[in-house]
Amino acid sequence: MVRPQRGRSGPLINKIVATFDDAVADIADGATVHFGGFASPFNSPSYLVAAVARQGATDLTAISTSMGRGLASADQQSRWLPPELRPRDFFDIGLLAELGRIRKGITSFAVGARHDWVYPFEERLAAGEAEVEVLGQGSLAERIRAARAGIAAFYTPVGPGTDVARGKEVRDFDGVPHVLETALKADFALVRAYKADRYGNLIFRGARTFNETMAGAAAVTIAEVDEVVDLGELRPEQIHTPGVYVQRVVVRPSQPVTSWGTAL
Amino acid sequence: MSEPERLHPTVMAMIVTRDFRDGDVVNLGVGLPLECANVLPPDREILLHSELGILGFGPVITDHTQADPYVMMVGNLPVTANPGMVFTSHDESFALIRGGHLDVTVLGGLQVDQECNLANTQFEGKPAGNLGGAPDLAYGAKRTIVLMHHTTNDGQFKVVERCTLPLTAPRCVSRIVTDVGVMDIEGGAVVLKETAPGWDPERIQGITGARLVIADDVHEVTL
């Protein structure tokens, strides 16, 4: 009779993936993807975006607070630094728009904030090659949080009386009109964190932006981190995102890799 | 006849911040409203909030060698890490905003009308808009102040009878501070309260799309 083995040769739970290319290999054409961060090289999942670009998945529905600036002007997001000190390994979702991979954007910032700032996604929109749903950032964030929390829909007082409420149910609570917004669940969530352990527990550095919001709001959450530490090193009261929300962890290179085409 | 000098952005910001109280939680939009961060009364404890999930920061840092790239407000501007500062996620940040925990929001504007409606997110000629955090901020803050130039670069009116651009948020604006004066919106009318030096009410009316009601105690701007 065969008895179950008690001893184990390796850890049961290990979410660390060796390469960015492995981490995103199964993102299919037509997938819906959360892109975390807030338009900064210091909080964006740059290497995951680059890996998706190399992988080639297309027809994506991209959920992201901003549709990005693209390769040519991504460094404008660190204008506070002299040009020579700006991170050269910042790949925002504008890269995917530039490559024609995004069919639809669900976002708060769809276009350049000035007449003379025109970014790749805006060009695709103007050419009729992409569509967009623009939401206020609070409703965008809450729709994602709802997906993580298993809430199908919620009423928010933000939106009635504006274009955002068009075609949606509006209902009064205490005399105040509220609009019904539905959860935004994705196939994948790509987020950036500071440290992780092999359980996928995450801590963030600085404002946690959409990274914490999106982790867990998808079937597969992939975290790009600066450092992986031993299990137990992150104190329980310190952990921002429990590892159950995270399926894969991949660590950033120690030296910047400045071309998105480089296998990593 | 050339027009009188308009108020400098620093002065416009000081008009807004002079009314802040200790403990006020204040969100500043990018652009002109950001000037407020640099002219806060130093003897007051104002908690500045920014949508990406930061509360309780200090002035914008201009010397990059002093900046921490992880302490940023919207627009990717490095700010001072004050004691007591807090980081949150985006969803928590907007729970704070929507839930009524914000005292004041200072927003930029493309158009404001006499019904307190605000349009500040979509330029003409663009295929879509940038709503950003403004709809939630304008709804959630106890007080919404719009800080903007009184007219566009090419002289179009921005204080109007009825917004023609897509609305960011309806019925939300309590005060408009521009480079020529201070107006409150009261009972469906734009009430002129303070005027920039050299700008009399008639001249301000001349560059305003809505009919101004002149407050009984209208006076020159004081700081």
What's this, in brief?
The complex is a heterodimer of chains A (264) and B (223). Chain A contains 6 helices and 11 strands. Chain A has 264 residues and is α/β, with parallel strands linked by helices.
What does this molecule look like?
The complex is a heterodimer of chains A (264) and B (223). With 264 residues, chain A is α/β, with parallel strands linked by helices. Helices cover 17% and strands 23% of the residues of chain A. Chain A has one domain (20-251): 3-Layer(aba) Sandwich (Glutaconate Coenzyme A-transferase), CATH 3.40.1080.10. Chain A is built from 6 helices and 11 strands. In chain A, a hairpin with a 2-residue loop joins strand 6 (170-173) and strand 7 (176-182). Chain A is globular. Chain A starts with 19 loop residues before the first helix and ends in a 13-residue tail after the last strand. Chain B is of the alpha/beta class. Chain B has a single domain (9-220), classed as 3-Layer(aba) Sandwich (Glutaconate Coenzyme A-transferase). In chain B, a hairpin with a 2-residue loop joins strand 13 and strand 14 (189-195). Chains A and B meet through helix 4, helix 5 and helix 6 of A and strand 5, helix 2 and helix 3 of B.
Largest interface: A-B, 56 and 49 residues
CATH superfamily of chain A: Glutaconate Coenzyme A-transferase
Shape of chain B: globular
Q: Please tell me the total number of domains of chain A.
A: 1
Instruction: Give the % helix of chain B.
Output: 10-25%
Element string of chain A (H = helix, E = strand): HEHEHEHEHEEEEEHEE
Unreliable runs of chain A: none
**Gap between N and C termini of chain B, in Å?**
28 Å
Number of helices of chain B: 4
How many DSSP-defined strands of chain B?
A: 15
| The CATH C-level class name of chain B | Alpha Beta
CA-atom Rg of chain A in angstroms: 20 Å
Largest sheet of chain A: 8 strands, mixed
What integer value in Å does the Rg of chain B equal? 17 Å
CATH superfamily of chain B: Glutaconate Coenzyme A-transferase
Instruction: Please indicate the count of domains of chain B.
Output: 1
